[in-house]
Amino acid sequence: MAQTLYDKVWDAHIVEQLGEDTLLYIDRHLIHEVTTPQAFAGLNENNRKVRRPDLTFGTMDHSISTRSLALDACGPQNKLQLQTLADNCAQHKIQLYPVGHKNQGIVHVIGPQLGLIQPGMTVVCGDSHTATHGAFGALAFGIGTSQVEHVLASQTLKQSKAKSMKIEVIGKLSIGVTAKDIILAIIGKIGHAGATGYVIEYCGEAISDLSMEQRMTICNMSIEAGAKAGLIAPDHKTIEYLKDKEFSPTKQHWNDAVGYWQSLTTDTDAIFDTVVTLQAKEIEPQITWGTNPGQVIGINQTIPSPDDFDDPIEKESAIKALKYMGLEAGQTWDNVKISHVFIGSCTNSRIEDLRAAAKVAASGKVKSDVTAIVVPGSVEVKEQAEKEALDVIFKEAGFEWRLPGCSMCLGMNDDVLQPGDRCASTSNRNFEGRQGRGSRTHLVSPEMAVAAALTGSFADSRQFGE
Amino acid sequence: MTGFTELTGKAAPLDQANIDTDQIIPKQFLTGVTRSGYGKHLFHDWRYLDLHEQELNPEFPLTKTEHKGANILLARENFGCGSSREHAPWALADFGFGCIIATSFADIFYSNCINNQLLPIVLPSKDMDELFAQVSNNPDIIFFVNLPEQSVKVGDKTYTFDMVEHHKQNMIKGLDAIGQTLELDTSISNYEDKRAAWL
């Protein structure tokens, strides 16, 4: 029977069928400080060991400072959590990349960068943005702490199979429109819960045209449409990306691995439960206006009115969101003043994101009443950017250049906004209070974030740079 | 873990769609290393008027006198969306909730509830309308939740709900999911023996 990519990866990981449940084997388990202390405590209480420390990799990213390498830079509680991770990894012989290590960074940035994520793998992490790794054709999804404990103990997880959704982005993107705009447009179309219960496969010319890093931006936000995971079939770009990475298959196994990876595509006559299509040329730079990622419009559209929504729930959500965001129906984006810009997060902190942002930053200066920070996704990204002197461009334009971490995406450190602050952010969630109580977040691409920094309000990034 | 079969009590209404886990428990409370003590921070931004949790917001449903002591929470579509933080069900359970009835749940939050004996019940929108109306008319009305029968009885009306059998059994028996899986050690080892060499 014709199979989807999801079917193929799923079938290859069945340890045992347990009634309607499947026990799936997990190839990679990524861990960080926030969602693991209780899992390790559970193991220790029950005298259980980590089954495969060799398939488990840890980093410090959520609770760390972006100004100092000291573990206590954000207070004793953060330090305790970071130290707990270090102790747990040492006790169970798990490779950890702590603050200061050359491989440290946001968990979803370092995984791919090290070659830990390969096509056809199953990947889990106690973090909803684990969907990022679907860009490699890996089945990757976020899990809770009880499930982290389950994977640590057994290297497996009990799962029920999700439904399948194909999202095809037809044709070529207009110049200056990015992967972030594609995924925001998709979420705008299907809604914040539009893919709940589904695994998405993204395809079409506009998706194939994307680089690996851009594909990660797409898959990263699958969870923002409620999806279990998002997949993109591996191709020559995937294979090229994985060549010579630290944990890629060695020379001896490389050809076998590539042969297998090339088989990981959806069969032409495979049937999806749902199919969604978008025309690439209709997508313009996107900005969220509300308090969930589905409340999004193009830069040249005006803020919607609650009356624009027929669905009573959407209408009610719009009334509440506009009030929280301090926006009025009919307002144009050039009239929305910002106070902050955040460039970073597992969605948009990779080297290509920083290159794209720097290109726009080189054309102007950050407005004097705007605080703008750039937080690279990993030590490797930071060092590469500095090698290319991107940090110089950012600093000269008035941006702060910080140390790698999750930072202001969720503000578990001291990168927190104050009530009423309005931020153009390259992160993934515009929930109420996400970046600080009472703060207002607008999700955009790196180029759009810089354009906002230079104008002090929102502007079409295509008018800047070369 | 003890099993879940029945729950009787009042329900508190949270009549809003898309309540995300950042609202249920904001990030500044995620630095703990244990599973306990999150209840006092539940819905922090909405429940308190100040950052130090000294002043309760009298307008927030969970603060209102008539909903004090409720052990069931009513909500709408996509409850628990966003971050995978298990601190969300820990906070809800620690506050005193044993069951959440909503139109739909986000996937990760739903499994986190099952793993914490916090019963997530999905009912159609029109049933939820009726439940919200019942609580609005009489905040003291008692809900009788029966998991083996998959029913919620409120006043003279009984609502039935669907639930995947293994989730139901795990809730009822309070099984140690990890212990169960570890009994399959031979199958796991057999699988590992045939994994590709480059993995």
Q: Reading side by side through the largest sheet of chain A, how are the strands ordered?
A: 5-4-3-6-7
Helical proportion of chain A, percent range: 25-40%
DSSP summary, beta strand count of chain B: 8
Rg of chain A over CA atoms, rounded to whole Å, is 21 Å
What is the tally of beta strands of chain A? Answer: 19
Largest interface by Cβ-Cβ < 8 Å: A-B, 75 and 53 residues
**What does the radius of gyration of chain B come to?**
19 Å
Low-confidence stretches of chain B: none
| SSE succession of chain B | EEHHEHEHEHEEEHHH
* Category from helices, strands and their pairing of chain A: alpha/beta
Q: From the helix content, strand content and strand pairing of chain B, which structural class follows?
A: alpha/beta
Low-confidence stretches of chain A: none
- Share of helix among residues of chain B? 25-40%
Content of β-strand of chain B: 15-25%
This entry's quaternary arrangement is heterodimer
General shape of chain A? globular
Distance between the termini of chain A: 51 Å
Beta-strand content estimate of chain A? 15-25%
Number of helices of chain A: 15
Offer a concise description of the structure:
With 466 residues, chain A is α/β, with parallel strands linked by helices.
Molecular structure report:
The complex is a heterodimer of chains A (466) and B (199). Chain A has 466 residues and is α/β, with parallel strands linked by helices. Chain A contains 15 helices and 19 strands. Chain A has a 5-stranded parallel β-sheet. The mean pLDDT of chain A is 97. Chain B is an alpha/beta fold and 199 residues long. In chain B, 31% of the residues lie in helices and 15% in strands. Chain B contains 8 helices and 8 strands; from the N terminus they run E-E-H-H-E-H-E-H-E-H-E-E-E-H-H-H. Chain B has a 4-stranded antiparallel β-sheet, with helices on one face. In chain B, strands 2-3-4-5 form a 4-stranded parallel β-sheet. The radius of gyration of chain B is 19 Å and the shape is globular. The relative contact order of chain B is 0.17. The interface between A and B is large, with 75 and 53 residues.
